[in-house]
Design goal:
260 residues, alpha/beta, six-stranded mixed β-sheet, 10 helices
C-alpha cells in the first residue's frame, strides 16, 4: 500500500540547525502513526516541520506524492487538518462558532458559511459527539469538551489527514480515552492520522504503527505490537518493564514502580 504522507531523509530543527536527522516516515491511508519519545526528543519539531510551520533543514515532506514546499498555505489547509498544543481561548465564541472556523479555507475572507458549510459543521460535531454542548460558550466547557470541539474544527476542513500534537495532554483519564477512541473511529471513515503522545500505553492501544525518537534520530519504526518492547521503553524512558501485553494493550512495570 502506498504511503499517503511520507518524509524523505528529513532533517528537522531550528534556525537551519538540525536536531533530528534522516527521518524516513511512511503514513498509509486509514492508519494511525504515533510518535513517541522522551521530552525534548523532537516529536513536536517533526510535526511542525511536516505541517510547514518550520522549514525543513534537509530532505522533503510529500503528501499524496506532492512536495509540500511547493504548496500554498491555503492548499495545505485543505489537504491537512492540524491540531497542535497551543491553547485556544476565543472571546465570545460558541463551540459551534469555533468549529465553523474550520471552513475558512473554503469561505474566503468574509467567512460567510453556505448551506453546505453549515451541514459539514453539523456532521463534524456529530462525529465528535459534541452536538449536546455545541451552543455553549467555548470558554465555559470542560477541557475534554474543548478538545472534541477542536477536533471537530479540524474535521470541518474535510482534509483526509489529521496531524495532532499531544491531543490528550490536558485531559483526565476518561476524556483521554474518549478522544483517542474518536480518533481511532475516524480511520474507519478513511482518515489518516499522525499524532504524538507521551503515553506509550496509548500508542500501543490506539496506533497501527509507532515511530520512536531518541538521541537525535529514529530509535524504532514499525507495527505497534512488534515495536513497543521492554528494551525500547528502557532506551526511551529508562523505565524497566516486566513485559508489554500487546493483546490487552498494556505496558506492565514491576510493582515497586507502579503501572502505566
Amino acid at each position: 500500500m502506498d504511503a499517503y504522507l511520507k518524509t524523505e531523509h528529513l532533517d528537522a530543527g531550528y534556525d537551519g540547525k538540525a536536531i533530528l536527522h534522516d527521518v524516513c516516515l511512511r503514513v498509509q491511508r486509514g492508519r494511525i502513526v504515533t510518535l513517541i519519545g522522551p521530552n525534548g526528543s523532537g516529536k513536536s519539531t517533526i510535526l511542525k516541520t511536516i505541517i510547514s510551520q518550520l522549514p525543513a533543514v534537509g530532505g522533503s515532506v510529500l503528501l499524496d506524492g506532492q512536495d509540500l514546499r511547493k504548496q500554498s498555505r491555503s492548499d495545505i489547509a485543505r489537504r491537512m487538518a492540524i491540531l497542535m498544543t497551543a491553547r485556544m481561548n476565543p472571546e465570545l465564541m460558541s463551540c459551534r462558532d469555533v468549529v465553523s472556523s474550520g471552513r475558512y479555507p473554503y469561505t474566503g475572507r468574509l467567512g460567510v458559511l453556505r448551506a453546505e458549510d453549515k451541514q459539514i459543521v453539523e456532521e463534524s460535531l456529530r462525529q465528535t459527539d459534541a452536538l449536546d454542548f455545541a451552543d455553549k460558550p467555548f470558554r465555559a466547557v470542560s477541557d475534554g469538551q474543548r478538545q472534541r470541539i477542536l477536533l471537530a474544527r479540524a474535521l470541518c476542513q474535510q482534509s483526509r489527514i489529521l496531524v495532532m500534537d499531544e491531543p490528550t495532554s490536558s485531559l483526565d483519564f476518561g476524556n483521554q480515552l474518549r478522544v483517542l477512541a474518536c480518533v481511532r473511529g475516524l480511520t474507519q471513515e478513511g482518515y489518516t492520522v499522525l499524532l504524538s503522545t507521551h503515553n506509550p500505553q496509548h500508542a500501543l492501544t490506539f496506533s497501527h504503527r509507532i515511530l520512536a525518537l531518541h538521541d537525535g534520530g529514529v530509535a524504532a519504526l514499525g507495527d505497534a505490537g512488534d515495536t513497543l518492547t521492554p528494551e525500547l521503553i528502557w532506551q526511551l524512558y529508562q523505565v524497566e518493564v516486566d513485559f508489554v501485553d500487546t493483546q490487552q494493550g498494556r505496558v506492565i512495570v514491576p510493582h515497586r514502580g507502579g503501572s502505566l
